[in-house]
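We emphasize that the prediction below concerns an isolated chain of 170 residues; any contacts that depend on oligomerization or on bound cofactors are therefore not represented. The input was used exactly as deposited, without trimming of termini.
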Amino acid sequence: MIQRTALTLAAALVAASAFAQTNVGVVNIDAVIQQSAKGKAALATIEDFRARKQSELQAMAKQYQDKQQEAQAMAASLSEDRRRQLSAELQSMQTNLQRAQEDAQSEGQRRTNEVLEDLDRQLGPLVSQVAQAKNLQLVLQLRPELGIVFVDPAIDITADVIARFDASEE
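Result of the prediction step, given as a token string:
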């Protein structure tokens, strides 16, 4: 038992010693995307798409509401056949609106994923270049959900990655 504890302690000390000699950096990819010119442009394309789709959906919803109000206003004077026809039209319009909303959401998510994957693809090599230039052996992603409580700003390479990203040709 004592031998096993000593062995575990020795392994932990060796790992800590190796880690102490490792040059570490951190990068906040979300900040790179939000603060770099290329990231802002990519996010703007996503927002433009969403705004365009939202405008289209609002127009469809307005048409549906107008048709619904028209049906309500004329309900008393319509024949039973016309009332059924109008009801079917309204149901069809409502179904089309719901499908359009679902399609817009799916397409928006797909486009967002594509844009973010493209940005990640571009940023990976740039993070590596900055890490090599700074002789870093390890770069960690700085994200709040990872539970990192404190980072010395001296090891944060986010600004360097932003500068390199904005200067890159791709």
